[in-house]
Amino acid sequence: MAQKPSIPKGTRDFNPEQVAKRHYIFNTVRSAFETFGFQPIETPSFENSGTLMGKYGEEGDRLIFKILNSGDYLSKANSEAYEAKDSNKLTSSISEKALRYDLTVPFARYVVQHQNDIEFPFKRYQIQPVWRADRPQKGRFREFYQCDADVVGSKSLWQEVEFIQLYDTVFSALKLEGVTIKINNRKILSGIAEVIGASDKLIDFTVALDKLDKIGEEKVKEEMRGKGISETGITKLQPLFTLSGSFESQIDSLKSILSSSEDGKKGIEELSFINKAISELGLSTATLQLDVTLARGLNYYTGAIFEVSAPENVQMGSIGGGGRYDDLTGIFGMKDVSGVGISFGLDRIYLVLEELGLFPETVNKNIAVLFINFGEKEALFSLKAINELRLQGINSELYPDAAKMKKQMNHANKRAIPFVVLIGDEEVNSNTYTLKNMVSGEQHKVSLDALITLVK
């Protein structure tokens, strides 16, 4: 019995219409990247395991897809780990490579490896797929594209300002109005951890806090208790869970909460600079919002943290995010190279545009003209005309078989092709073309020049 075809959970096939819509997003994002001065690079789909492991925190490490070594991988397996069924120790002996989890860590590796060829500050963009062994759900896949832009080699906060403008530019171009660009600063989170006496548990604290939108206040507190954060410390956190109001009013509240933390005060200073600049420059359709519970749970952020939310009327997770990392390249031996970057969640943006009906009708570059095939002589005559149409940028094709007229017409209708051309003996002899409008039903006998003009 033949095997029923299937694909792994969390992956998808894309039909021509979906691919066209995805390319519309790609092209919009790419155009904005290049307008802002970013240059494209690409990195391999898989990296050495050592490049990726330990860079995303404990949870991130569990979500990295490991690749088994080629050949008889068990012959080199750690026999002690194998007998003990210790998967962590066993994995390192049977897997030396892994699919990339994001584009930022491979980018850091790229910068260090090619540092002698790069002019700093280096502004790069990258649009490639990444893989995560996550539980598939709406808007969350195991294989998905990221669209990243980063600047390395500059500590200037004007880069953060520019990234907020970049988000606004892209979403405005996609006609996706009403997105919220949430911002926080890792120094503020460090300051809060210091104030509550949990500096040694900063990662546990931020990972738990980052889940506030997903699991709620009580569950976050419960997780913090489980990580050893004291009840006194959790009580001191209470103002954070209810902090609201304008950017400026939240900053004022933070000044009071973090008055004893130098790290916290530095974070407040950086956020105030960014907010003042954006207030002066203005945004087209997006809104900048301070969210002190925003943590993103990643080990490498050291300054600003970004997360973008879809318009309020759409139930969707974040559609973008990023932040400042002051020494990400240090993990590969290149110290004191500051960077900042953002990412666009292509797949979630696609779902949002689809739900709101924001894809342009012209996004599908469909065939404009189908030439009906009546036989060898007529087909050859048609192909000469098709060559001219294609030179004029008109998408056109010949139906490959001299099938019944009804079948060929049905084919044009099913593919929503707006024009068909019929060529018989009379048209060949008079060097004309019968053009039929498939929407109105009208048809006219025309010259090739007239055909080109009417279809255009």
UniProtKB/TrEMBL annotation:
Claim: Transcription is one of the keywords in the record: no
Top EC class of this enzyme: ligase
Record-listed E.C. numbers: 6.1.1.21
Predominant place of localization: cytoplasm
Keywords assigned by UniProt, alphabetized: Aminoacyl-tRNA synthetase, ATP-binding, Cytoplasm, Ligase, Nucleotide-binding, Protein biosynthesis
PROSITE patterns: AA_TRNA_LIGASE_II
Domain Aminoacyl-transfer RNA synthetases class-II family profile intervals: 1-400
GO MF annotation, one: histidine-tRNA ligase activity
ATP-binding recorded as keyword: yes
Catalytic activity, as annotated: tRNA(His) + L-histidine + ATP = L-histidyl-tRNA(His) + AMP + diphosphate + H(+)
Cellular localization per UniProt: Cytoplasm
Family annotation (Pfam families): HGTP_anticodon, tRNA-synt_His
Protein family (similarity comment): Belongs to the class-II aminoacyl-tRNA synthetase family.
Subunit structure: Homodimer.
Name by which UniProt lists this protein: Histidine--tRNA ligase
Lineage: Bacteria, Pseudomonadati, Bacteroidota, Flavobacteriia, Flavobacteriales
